[in-house]
Amino acid sequence: MLDLRQLRYFIAVAEAEHVGRAAEQLQISQSPLSRQIAQLEKKLGLTLFERTHQRIRLTRDGTVFLSEARALLRHADRLENLGRRLGRGEEGGLCIGYVSDAMHTGVLPSALRRLQEERPGIHVALYSMSASQQFEGLRQRSLDIALVREPPDRDDPVLRAASLLEDPLLLVLPAGHPLAAQEVVRAQDLDGQAWIAVEDEGDPAWRDAFIASCVASGFTPDIRLDAAEPLTALGLVASGLGLALIQKSMLRGGKDGVVVRELPWHEASIRLWAVWHHIDLRPIVSSFRETVLSDERTRSEETPPRRSRR
Fold it and tell me: Containing H/E element for 276?
């Protein structure tokens, strides 16, 4: 069985790329640290580091192992946190996984605000993770609820899901752009225009999917810049660097320097799902889930549904 202490030592050395500096950070001597790393490599039957007189760096196998080691320690930390709270007689608090859209759309902040009103002082731990990491956390019971863009497979024996939100994408143009004077923007108007594409952190093929959706609607974007998240894209649009598609929830109240137009012929939206383990072990988990889902029902009554193509 893996020793978590050895994993922490391994991660420290991998990040510092120097045994001496890692030893200082860990506040231990260099010799015991080197010995622990050697024991870990022997246990695994794997060479984790390439060693020279000047530095130490990960092998290719070591890089793969580092990613998994970090994930395991994150899970161990969450499990320890949960155990301590249960040991103090608390309800256990909540461990929530999320993607950035859960914040951007206001879904998660709204649910947390209601939770604090109903149960003031309850501990909540938030973890920004990919959908696959969140699903694994739910299966291992280190997460209580996941907020993701895509649901798990319908036939998943453990996980259950409900749609929370369809947030339509709107066209955002620089205020000084020639198309900003048009109330109606057609597909042919956008063909060849400079675009800022917003990355989808959970989809490695996000760029291809974005281009395909545009082509299917009748125009081909000239992507000049990639933005890591919508707020960055908005700033770039306001600077006159291109056009972008931004979810409606981020455009309420208007934004300086940009003009917003609906594209009824390009029915695309950001979707958000709540996912949870099918067995509820603690009342606080089912209560929070109902809070999230009730917020979704309220939004559905206020906003007519749209067909999603993203």
Answer: strand 269-277
What distance in Å separates the CA atoms of residue 255 and residue 259, rounded to the nearest whole number? Answer: 8
**pLDDT digit string (tens) for 238-251?**
999 999 999 888 88
Residues 6+ apart with CB under 8 A from 292: 107, 111, 145, 147, 164, 274
> Which tokens is 192 given?
């060849």
User: Which value, to the nearest 10 degrees, does the dihedral of the CA atoms of residues 42, 48, 51, 57 take?
Assistant: -160
Helix (H, G, I), strand (E, B) or coil at 35: helix
Q: How far apart are CA 277 and CA 142, in angstroms?
A: 11
User: Is 238:257 a contact under the CB 8 Å cutoff?
Assistant: yes
Question: Where do the DSSP E strands lie in the chain?
Answer: 49-51, 56-58, 94-98, 124-128, 145-148, 159-174, 194-198, 222-227, 244-247, 258-261, 269-277
**Around Cβ 223, how many Cβ atoms within 10 Å?**
15
Residue corresponding to tokens 């320690």: 73
pTM listed for this prediction: 0.63
- The predicted-structure confidence for 94-138, as pLDDT tens digits, reads as follows 899 999 889 888 899 999 999 888 888 788 889 988 899 999 999
How many other CB atoms are found less than 10 A from the CB of residue 271? 17
